[in-house]
Amino acid sequence: MQTERKSYLGLIIIIFTVFSIWLLLGVVSYFVFDNWTDRGTFGDMFGSVNVLFSGLAFALVLYTIHLQKQDLDIQREVQKIQIKDLKLQAEATAKSAEQLESQQQLLNFQVIQGTVLNLINIKNRYIKDFRWAPYGKFPAGFNLEETPDLHGEEAVLGYFELFNANPEGALTDTFFSKYFRMFFYTLNFINESNINQKQKQILADILSIETSDPELRIIYKCHANKQGELLVLKQFGFDKLYNSLT
């Protein structure tokens, strides 16, 4: 509003100045010359009327230029505001995208973590439910009667003693082959999941905690010549844990 008032004031000043000059020429010609003939000649010489309209036209041109300059200034200010708003919107959009991505990553991790925990529970239940009844050996010879059943990890360790001479033979055994498939399926599932490396290591550490020392010894003894399995074990630090046991 103040800018518009200043613009109108400038136009009024210009028009007033032009009109004053025109009027001044008339007053000067009236007092300087004694008769109207000389005054008319003087007026025609300067073309006072033409000067008035030319001055007014020039004033309007100047005023138009001034208004255009104001419009350009306003447009620049509007553009600056629009650019600032666009930057703020872009930043807000980027921030929202980052938040959504973080939420999606967290959701993916929670889903994958739940799956890994279920797989670990299946593995542990498989060991816990294992039963084995070894034949006892006495000084008088072999007793064909079975000794009391062994349960869980104790049964697994006792059963694995049958493969001490050839640990890789356990790879084709019904019980151990199924156990190894469950263990490495869980580990490979972690490795191939769509989560970051830190999250993968967290899940691998959970699997490591839920794998007993005897289990780890059996795994390494049976896979001593299996480079693929050894590589994925090393990737998640199982080799360091195994070396600490030997």
From TrEMBL:
Keyword terms, alphabetized: Coiled coil, Membrane, Transmembrane, Transmembrane helix
Q: Which residues form a coiled coil?
A: 69-103
Membrane-crossing segments per the record: 7-33, 45-65
* Name recorded for this polypeptide: Phage abortive infection protein
UniProt source species: Paenibacillus polymyxa (Bacillus polymyxa)
Q: Taxonomic lineage of this organism?
A: Bacteria, Bacillati, Bacillota, Bacilli, Bacillales
